[in-house]
Recover the amino acids of this structure.
């Protein structure tokens, strides 16, 4: 076992292939590939024409591929090298603070220029679009984490980037907007007056603060209206996006070789599923093929408990009911989670792959109250220096809980989590926490029950 | 020559000693050590009692040491390992964008948890204080870069941290305040009502926005009044602080070995001098002892052109005339630079070591207008991803200018600069730049002439 604090790979050791979990899924592939994606209007499987108006062809192909390993194109690897391989840390100072026999390791994705794991897929989607002659992308963003990643990726490939940013975030959280504009992206506060849907919303309410659902609809409409000039980029949920993120977990496995250990518990925070999947799927692959028995744990917010309390059924991908329908764990597409600071985890649904694996018992999940996650984030920062993003604090809290369990049981286990982003753009959330202005939300039982009354009727 | 994008050292390769330039200084050591530090009242060399009320003994000892290499204590190295060794990058994408035959390398200190080089000395000062039984530190901070570094270092050694933060920054730039509070520091908006000096200022003007000069005076008063319980920590200017930062340049030299090249030009932005010195002094050591002829270039703001336009003479270290007097390049201690966004470079004076080296012709300096530095920062971000802090953009601009010169001359040179911090907490500055709200300031000739009328009379 190495005495190091960090385990660092050379650029040559960066994975050359992503891990595609499709062939290893314990369910009928139809449940996770495009043929289980239903058109929101016809409720029939989506057509290739529908998909190709939105996504690059190579991206569409990845979704149905049954190849276990898919090559990472060299132009993508060239850009990955700007921050990858990212370091794996042994949290020695946190272990000491917890007085635990557990060994805690964290992978740090905050080293990317925009401070999160999101560029791992943004760069790929931009490369595919460029390769296919597309001029650029439309997308939506809430607080701006995904928008920043796509804006940077588009600039690297000299593509246009049109970001529909929820208006209330545009006005109240200017830092990520500035970051995107600095990369040359066009930012439209949503609802905007440049799409039909935006105009409709504004006609009803000129002061609409916007929502992620509205922004998605605007971005999709703008891509379709461009007649092939622009495509639509999504930062989570879809199979290829999860796969692009597996570079994270694949690096981590190599780094555990350097550390001379192997994890007993692998933890990621979860919203749409891409951060969790990218970190955890390579470990599941080891479980499937190498007889390891690593526990894989998803940490979600108590106020949006999609895995732990949701139903595994067909629902719309967006809250407006305009996006495709997929089979997933859902709280009902018109369930509106409480306004917690972990904005990236406020999604009513879940990536279909993750849902199927959870349903099959391959992964576990835990739902955590907000205050406990900020307390964990602060404890982590005081021990290790890095201040974790509000989303990430869910993984931190789950890891600390596992480490305390080790202490109580008197057993030493190896615990690892993905520190998928820092809090440099979210410090107002910590300010609220430190000033006692945050509170926990009760489990929204009634709201979820109501929302579940409005699932789409599907005959599949 | 390596094809890599990054050059990364293992933890074992992290320097075990700092480089102390004292024995290699081309001037009488009296001009840079404590015996050239004069008491602001008596104008006589400061006494050991005066110094020991403010600084840890081991820190005082470093200032007068003539040992060329000083061991980095293991507890400091343990904490350095949380982010060190930091990466050296070849800016291949920027070279391409500039179409230059030059090779551009940047060292990236933004990987520290607080996003700058400042913890390299904060951790050392905290360790020395802990070792000597001190309870904690007082310090001042403007925008909060230094305050964050000291707050983190104090928490790591379980020391109290009392930061006097310029009130206008406390109110307008809450993010770094939150960061410090999250590490457990006590933040006092300055002027405060807990020091005599603060009370005086408030009596005259209850709405005083504060200044760095006032905050320094409050922090020094609070340290002295604590009767040894608290010491005072300074983040730049003093010899030991410059030395602690040499870990940056020493790593860089090892990384150039990996790259298979050696720099012709070494560039750092300069305010008080610690970032510049930490990066450049190890290269000067090579010039002194190994007959290299590397050009060493300091990049300062046109509106605070301390090296290029200042006089090399005795002046107060602070603007209030309450701090000790040292021989340095100065624009006059009551010169108030224009309110540029590179707050860390708005200092009327200069580290005595840097001043002596500049006076002797060992280093060069260039003064840059604000708009050109933001343009360079944006160009860098669009090529390399990382958004440089407003201070750092001065080094970026100087490096780009050198690279363009190479193109014009048709020669290939190796250029390196220290990317000493990212702009995550300074994005409002980029917002102003992108919105066209920034302008350049003319060289403040009259203001400097006026300020130079008020130098202290010194008989040395």
């Amino acid at each position: 076992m190495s005495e190091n604090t960090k385990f660092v790979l050379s650029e040559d050791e960066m994975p050359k292939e992503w891990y595609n979990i499709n062939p290893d899924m314990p369910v009928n592939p139809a449940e996770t590939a495009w043929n289980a994606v239903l058109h929101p209007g016809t409720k029939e499987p989506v057509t290739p024409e529908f998909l190709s108006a939105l996504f690059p062809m190579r991206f569409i192909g990845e979704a149905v591929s049954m190849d276990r390993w898919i090559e990472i194109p060299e132009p993508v690897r060239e850009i990955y090298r700007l921050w990858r391989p990212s370091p794996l840390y042994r949290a020695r100072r946190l272990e000491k603070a917890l007085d635990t026999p557990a060994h805690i390791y964290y992978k740090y994705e905050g080293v990317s220029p925009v401070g999160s794991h999101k560029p791992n897929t943004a760069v790929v989607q931009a490369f595919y679009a460029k390769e296919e002659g597309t001029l650029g992308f439309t997308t939506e963003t809430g607080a701006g984490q995904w928008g920043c990643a796509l804006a940077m990726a588009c600039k690297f490939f000299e593509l246009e980037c049109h970001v529909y940013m929820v208006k209330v975030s545009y006005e109240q959280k200017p830092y990520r907007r500035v970051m995107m504009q600095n990369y040359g992206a066009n930012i439209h506060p949503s609802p905007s007056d440049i799409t039909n849907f935006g105009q409709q919303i504004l006609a009803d309410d000129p002061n609409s603060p916007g929502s992620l659902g509205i922004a998605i609809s605007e971005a999709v409409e703008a891509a379709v209206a461009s007649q092939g000039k622009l495509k639509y980029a999504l930062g989570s949920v879809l199979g290829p996006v999860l796969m692009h993120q597996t570079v994270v977990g694949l690096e981590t496995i190599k780094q555990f070789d350097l550390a001379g250990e192997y994890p007993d518990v692998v933890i990621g925070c979860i919203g749409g599923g891409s951060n969790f999947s990218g970190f955890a799927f390579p470990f599941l692959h080891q479980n499937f093929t190498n007889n390891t028995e690593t526990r894989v744990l998803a940490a979600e917010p108590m106020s949006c408990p999609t895995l732990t309390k949701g139903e595994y059924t067909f629902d719309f991908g967006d809250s407006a009911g305009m996006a495709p329908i997929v089979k997933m764990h859902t709280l009902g597409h018109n369930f509106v989670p409480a306004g917690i600071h972990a904005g990236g985890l406020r999604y009513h649904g879940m990536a279909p792959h993750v849902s199927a694996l959870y349903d099959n018992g391959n992964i576990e999940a835990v739902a955590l109250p907000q205050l406990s996650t900020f307390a964990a984030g602060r404890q982590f920062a005081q021990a290790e220096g890095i201040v974790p993003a509000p989303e990430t604090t869910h993984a931190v809290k789950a890891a600390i809980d596992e480490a305390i369990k080790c202490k109580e049981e008197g057993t030493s286990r190896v615990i690892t989590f993905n520190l998928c982003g820092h809090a440099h753009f979210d410090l107002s959330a910590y300010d609220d926490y430190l000033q006692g202005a945050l509170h926990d939300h009760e489990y929204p039982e009634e709201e979820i029950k109501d929302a579940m009354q409005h699932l789409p009727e599907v005959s599949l």
About this structure: The longest helix of chain B spans residues 274-290.
